């Protein structure tokens, strides 16, 4: 309930109490449930522990292409049936491919719960992997890449373009959307092998959130997923790489872009194995870039007017709590053509240096923490966002409950920890990508 | 269906009985100043979402929308008691944020806060509404930044084709220009922005929506206390009715070197309050308004021409329009456009099947419930409805209307609004490559 807050009085960081129930089926499928009966809607998400980093060499973009194939028919459903059954139930669906996982989900009126479970179980048993479907979805994916990357100014900047500057291994450095050559040479056999390796029930987490009764939902899940055959679960290899010891720079020419831009990234502690060391970097990114009162907005955009926009975030896909090691803190800025990239980089260095040397201003940390809490709460308000969050937290950490704890854990980060994090953002540890616009080539 | 497919062994489960959406706790009051306030309790998370819609019709002098654009980008640049940085810090303290958007109909201030901070958020909102100062230095910085951002936006195919389409559809109507040119923005000075604020940032005709874990009645008192002093008087203007669509030759806009063409077809539509709206909405869904539509199944799932074709309805205060969009590889530009025209012709002349209609009907009813199940979703929907005088009653009644629509009504709406002969087509792409093939389909105009 709201009460007037007088100017200057800090607000308390509120907590949520979303319940989490969990169990594992004999075939290895892990299940998490988060009931909330305040509206008659549910979300169902299946997260497989395979992403861009696991795709084979010579098959860039395969994890994403395979995601498309999971919608093309399954053991008991012809092509197009999945879409029709979800939408004819009043629901929406999608899937997405990340560095470390691939998710499939629908959100629907709660009377469609059993139907949604059936649809996910059916394609977990056997997707319809045919040459015709493969050729059709290769064409669709190529159009997706054209609309998002090739035909668009700043396409892929910096998420596809900065990893190859920062990393050396194929797993961490390659283009996750894929080259047209690799996509076109994908075969049905590749798809079958990818499915049998990575899409075992023991390599997945099923999450259901919203208007459900725990006992009833448990029975339905056992009915539909219980007989999906257990298969060997692959051991996820380490994708670790040594940190940079000297600065790396690259230049990208974007013929369609009107204005220059720069992006830079530094490695950060393991988000899963060392959460307490990682959280100060999440706070630091906000101190530097969240809103007009942040360090870099105030300096670069408002005071010096050498940038039109600045942003900072954790993870190449902006995913601080659903990515594994190695990952990075990224900063990026767009700036007018009259400004040199070096001017922007120097100003960023100076602001980081000032923070690392002189610390935070009174009140600066608590206000950033309050805003971070609001961002996190906003993301889990809709049942779909909440359900997918608990699925990934459970898969990568076995800790779906973290959804309720993160605002407080971030509020416990100290000024000393943020300053210490800033002290690690040295030029010698970073990768820098300059985007040169077409007119400047 | 693929030939290798084995006969189904399992059947898809039926739907259970639907559960009704609980009636939201809501309170409404129109303040003495003319501001209408709607407060709704939706308590999933300890946050509050606010949306303030201020009528802004006629705010553009002639075709110059640049003053309004600069106002939206600088209203948070300073007040009688705080600088821009201090305002941002005050908002952060309560976990809050404010942002401002403008179009030819309205100025919308959107915000959110941890719920304990609502009182403070409203105080800050009041301070901005009543004492925004538009300092010259900050206005100078922001207008340059805005001009650069517009330049970036106009390098994006989606923005370029939209600009050409709006000019083609609306001619001299205010809706023809949504975004000013960078040079227009660079010429705007503080006094013009201050004058526009004094004349148009008024409580008369404005609507404030609050959704969150709030007590609706107590929230109205809180709003009255915080915003009661926002009381300048004036007149809320209305946008003149939009002109009917005038069909004509395809307009081709050149973007040399494009590897894709952006296809857009505009068609007539009806506003949400219109008697035909439910039938029209279902006709549009069957045609191209969702994934399980004829258009998507044809040009994506069968032919692989495009990633995300769709047909959506844009509602503005003075008129509604259907927009069909597809971004396709350059070499299939004409074939893809042919398929769009074919599917429009098919929906306009052959009634949908009963199965197609039921599927679209359930989708429309279900997704309406989904879209208002989050605080931000409900706040956004209520402020959109407020633009045409609709409210929670429309939200409650629309599923009932959708449930009653007949196949004949849908067929009539399709014939009346989706016939390809009534469409306006604009294509953005590499003219050298696509002019010839497009010319085979009909006359092609160049700007």
Automatic annotation (TrEMBL), chain B:
Residues covered by region (Disordered): 1-23
SUPFAM superfamilies for the chain: LuxS/MPP-like metallohydrolase (SSF63411)
Domain spans labelled Peptidase M16 C-terminal: 192-362
Signal peptide residue numbers: none
Gene3D superfamilies: Metalloenzyme, LuxS/M16 peptidase-like
The Peptidase M16 N-terminal domain, residue ranges: 68-182
Pfam family, one: Peptidase_M16
The protein's name: Pitrilysin family protein
Organism annotation: Cryptosporangium minutisporangium
């Amino acid at each position: 309930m709201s009460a007037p807050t007088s100017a200057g009085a800090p607000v308390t960081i509120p907590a949520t109490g979303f319940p989490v129930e969990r169990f594992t089926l004999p075939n290895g499928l892990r299940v998490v449930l988060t009931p909330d009966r305040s509206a008659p809607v549910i979300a169902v998400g299946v997260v497989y522990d395979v992403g861009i980093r696991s795709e084979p060499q010579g098959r860039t973009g395969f994890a994403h292409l395979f995601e498309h194939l999971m919608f093309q028919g399954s053991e008991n459903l012809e092509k197009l049936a999945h879409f029709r059954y979800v939408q004819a139930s009043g629901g929406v669906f999608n899937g997405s491919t990340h560095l470390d996982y691939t998710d499939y989900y629908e959100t629907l009126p709660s009377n469609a719960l059993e139907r949604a479970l059936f649809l996910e179980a059916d394609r977990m048993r056997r997707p319809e992997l045919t040459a015709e479907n493969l050729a059709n979805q290769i064409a669709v994916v190529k159009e997706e890449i054209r609309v998002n990357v090739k035909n668009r100014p700043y396409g892929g900047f910096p998420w596809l373009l900065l990893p190859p500057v920062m990393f050396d291994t194929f797993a961490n450095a390659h283009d996750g959307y894929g080259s047209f050559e690799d996509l076109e040479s994908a075969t049905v056999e590749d798809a079958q092998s990818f499915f049998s390796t990575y899409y075992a029930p023991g390599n997945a987490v099923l999450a259901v959130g919203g208007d459900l009764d725990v006992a009833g939902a448990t029975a339905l899940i056992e009915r539909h997923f219980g007989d999906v055959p257990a298969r060997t679960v692959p051991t996820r290899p380490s994708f670790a790489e040594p940190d940079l010891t000297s600065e790396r720079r690259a230049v990208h020419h974007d013929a369609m872009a009107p204005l220059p831009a720069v992006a830079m990234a530094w490695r950060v502690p393991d988000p899963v194995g060392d959460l307490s060391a990682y959280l100060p970097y999440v706070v630091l990114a906000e101190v530097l870039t969240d809103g007009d009162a942040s360090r870099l907005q105030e300096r670069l955009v408002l005071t010096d007017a050498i940038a039109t926009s600045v942003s900072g975030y954790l993870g190449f896909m902006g995913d601080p709590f659903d990515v594994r090691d190695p990952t990075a803190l990224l900063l990026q800025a767009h700036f007018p053509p009259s400004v040199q990239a070096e001017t922007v980089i120097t100003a960023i260095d100076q602001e980081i240096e000032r923070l690392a040397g002189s610390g935070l201003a009174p009140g600066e940390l608590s206000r950033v923490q309050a805003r971070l809490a609001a961002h996190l709460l906003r993301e889990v308000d809709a049942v779909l966002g909440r359900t997918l969050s608990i699925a990934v937290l459970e898969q990568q950490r076995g800790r779906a409950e973290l959804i309720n704890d993160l605002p407080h854990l971030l509020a416990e980060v100290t000024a000393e920890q943020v300053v210490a994090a800033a002290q690690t953002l040295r030029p010698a540890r970073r990768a820098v990508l300059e985007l040169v616009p077409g007119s400047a080539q | 269906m693929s030939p290798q497919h084995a006969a189904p062994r399992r059947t898809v489960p039926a739907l259970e009985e639907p559960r009704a959406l609980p009636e939201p706790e809501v309170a409404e009051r129109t303040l003495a100043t003319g501001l209408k306030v709607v407060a709704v309790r939706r308590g999933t998370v300890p946050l509050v979402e606010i949306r303030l819609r201020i009528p802004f019709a006629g705010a553009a002098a002639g075709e110059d929308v640049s003053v309004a654009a600069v106002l939206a980008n600088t209203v948070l640049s300073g007040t009688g008691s705080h600088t821009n940085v201090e305002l941002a810090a005050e908002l952060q303290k309560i976990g809050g944020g404010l942002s401002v958007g403008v179009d030819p109909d309205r100025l919308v201030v959107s915000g959110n806060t941890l719920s304990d901070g609502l009182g403070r958020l409203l105080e800050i909102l009041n301070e901005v509404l009543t004492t925004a100062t538009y300092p010259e230095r900050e206005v100078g910085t922001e207008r340059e930044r805005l001009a650069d951002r517009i330049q970036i936006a106009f390098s994006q195919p989606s923005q370029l084709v939209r600009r050409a389409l709006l000019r083609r559809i609306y001619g001299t109507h205010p809706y023809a220009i949504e975004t000013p040119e960078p040079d227009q923005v660079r010429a705007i000075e503080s006094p013009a922005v201050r004058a526009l604020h004094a004349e148009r940032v008024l409580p008369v005709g404005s609507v404030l929506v609050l959704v969150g874990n709030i007590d609706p009645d107590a929230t109205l008192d809180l709003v009255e206390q915080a915003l009661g002093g926002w009381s300048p008087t004036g007149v809320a203007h209305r946008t003149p009715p939009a002109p009917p669509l005038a069909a004509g030759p395809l307009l081709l806009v050149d973007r040399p070197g494009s590897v894709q063409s952006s296809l857009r077809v505009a068609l007539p539509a009806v506003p949400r309050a219109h008697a035909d709206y439910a039938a029209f909405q279902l006709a549009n869904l069957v045609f191209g308004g969702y994934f399980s539509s004829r258009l998507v199944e044809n040009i994506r799932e069968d032919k692989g021409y495009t990633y995300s074709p769709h047909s959506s309805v844009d509602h503005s205060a003075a008129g509604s329009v259907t927009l069909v969009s597809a971004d396709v590889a350059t070499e299939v530009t004409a074939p893809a456009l042919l398929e769009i025209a074919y599917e429009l012709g098919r929906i306009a002349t052959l009634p949908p099947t009963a199965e197609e209609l039921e599927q679209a009907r359930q989708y429309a009813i279900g997704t309406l419930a989904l879209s208002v199940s989050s605080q931000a979703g409900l706040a956004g929907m209520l402020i959109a409805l407020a633009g045409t005088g609709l409210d929670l009653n429309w939200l409650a009644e629309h599923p009932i209307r959708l449930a009653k629509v007949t196949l004949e009504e849908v067929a009539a709406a399709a014939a009346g609004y989706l016939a390809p002969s009534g469409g306006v087509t604009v294509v953005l792409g590499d003219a050298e490559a696509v002019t010839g093939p497009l010319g085979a389909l009909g006359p092609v105009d160049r700007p």
